[in-house]
Specification:
The complex is a heterodimer. Chain A is mainly β. Chain A is built from no helices and 13 strands. In chain A, the strands form three sheets. In chain A, strands 2, 4, 5, 6, 9, 12 and 13 form a seven-stranded mixed β-sheet that branches. A four-stranded antiparallel β-sheet of chain A has the order 1-3-8-7, with no helix packed on it. In chain A, strands 10-11 form a two-stranded antiparallel ribbon. The model of chain A has no long low-confidence stretch (mean pLDDT 90). Helix content of chain B is 0%, strand content 59%. Chain B is built from no helices and eleven strands. In chain B, strands 2, 4, 5, 9, 10 and 11 form a six-stranded mixed β-sheet that branches. A five-stranded antiparallel β-sheet of chain B has the order 1-3-8-7-6, with no helix packed on it. In chain B, 32% of the residues are buried. The model of chain B has no long low-confidence stretch (mean pLDDT 94). Classes of the chains: A mainly beta, B mainly beta. At the A-B interface, strand 5 and strand 12 of A face strand 5, strand 9 and strand 10 of B.
C-alpha cells in the first residue's frame, strides 16, 4: 500500500467518449502530479499541482484536462482522445517544504486503451 | 533541452554486484532520484542525492557527481526479486525528468 490510490485501474474508451481518472493520496502531501508512461519511453510529466494550484502544464494537449479540488484529490478528464494516447497514467504526490524536495510516491496507475 | 541517459538493459547473476549508470544534462538541478519499477507496478523510491558523494541504504547505494552530470545506482548481493526497471530522475524545482529506465535481469 503506497498511500496513493487510482481508479479505475483499467479503462477502454472510444475516441468520442468522455471519461475521468481519479487519484487520491492519503499521505498529507501538498503536491500532486500526473505522468504518462508509454512503452519504451521515459515517464512524461503532464501536470503539477502545489496546494491545489496548477504550477506546471507540460505542453499537454487540451483533450487532457486536470482538476484538483483539494490537496488530496486529483482528476484527469479525458475527451476525444487519440489511439496514441493509450498508455499507463500514473499519479504521484510529494511533500514540498521550502527548499527541501522529497521523493514522490506513485499510485498503481490507470492502464488506458483508446480504440 | 533536458536529457537523461541510462543503459536500456543489463543482466547480472544472483549474489553479484551491479552498477547502473545515469548521465544527465538539464537546465537546473535540485536533486537526483532513483526508482524501482516492477512490471505492471508503480515506481517505488529507492534513493535521493542532492550533494556529491555516496548515499548508502542497505543493499542499495547511489552516487552523484554534479560537475560530471553523472550518477550510479549500486545493487549488492543481487536477489531474483531485484529483476525490475530502474529509473533515474532529475528534479528541477517542480519538474521531474526521467530516463527511459534500465531493465535489470537477474539470473540464477
Amino acid at each position: 500500500e503506497t498511500g496513493v490510490t487510482q481508479t479505475p485501474r483499467h479503462l477502454v474508451m472510444g475516441m468520442t467518449n468522455k471519461k475521468s481518472l481519479k487519484c487520491e493520496q492519503h499521505l498529507g502531501h501538498n503536491a500532486m502530479y500526473w505522468y504518462k508512461q508509454s512503452a519504451k519511453k521515459p515517464l512524461e510529466l503532464m501536470f503539477v499541482y502545489n496546494f491545489k494550484e496548477q504550477t506546471e502544464n507540460n505542453s499537454v494537449p487540451s483533450r487532457f484536462s486536470p482538476e484538483c479540488p483539494n490537496s488530496s484529490h486529483l482528476f484527469l478528464h479525458l475527451h476525444t482522445l487519440q489511439p496514441e494516447d493509450s498508455a499507463l497514467y500514473l499519479c504521484a504526490s510529494s511533500q514540498d517544504e521550502g527548499g527541501s524536495y522529497n521523493e514522490q510516491f506513485f499510485g498503481p496507475g490507470t492502464r488506458l486503451t483508446v480504440l | 533541452g533536458q536529457n537523461i541517459d541510462q543503459p536500456t538493459e543489463m543482466t547480472a547473476t544472483e549474489g553479484a554486484i551491479v552498477q547502473i549508470n545515469c548521465t544527465y544534462q538539464t537546465s537546473g538541478f535540485n536533486g537526483l532520484f532513483w526508482y524501482q519499477q516492477h512490471a505492471g507496478e508503480a515506481p517505488t523510491f529507492l534513493s535521493y542525492n542532492v550533494l556529491d558523494g555516496l548515499e548508502e541504504k542497505g543493499r542499495f547505494s547511489s552516487f552523484l557527481s554534479r560537475s560530471k552530470g553523472y550518477s550510479y545506482l549500486l545493487l549488492k548481493e543481487l536477489q531474483m526479486k531485484d529483476s525490475a526497471s530502474y529509473l533515474c530522475a532529475v528534479r528541477n524545482f517542480n519538474k521531474f525528468y526521467f530516463g527511459s529506465g534500465t531493465k535489470l535481469n537477474v539470473k540464477p
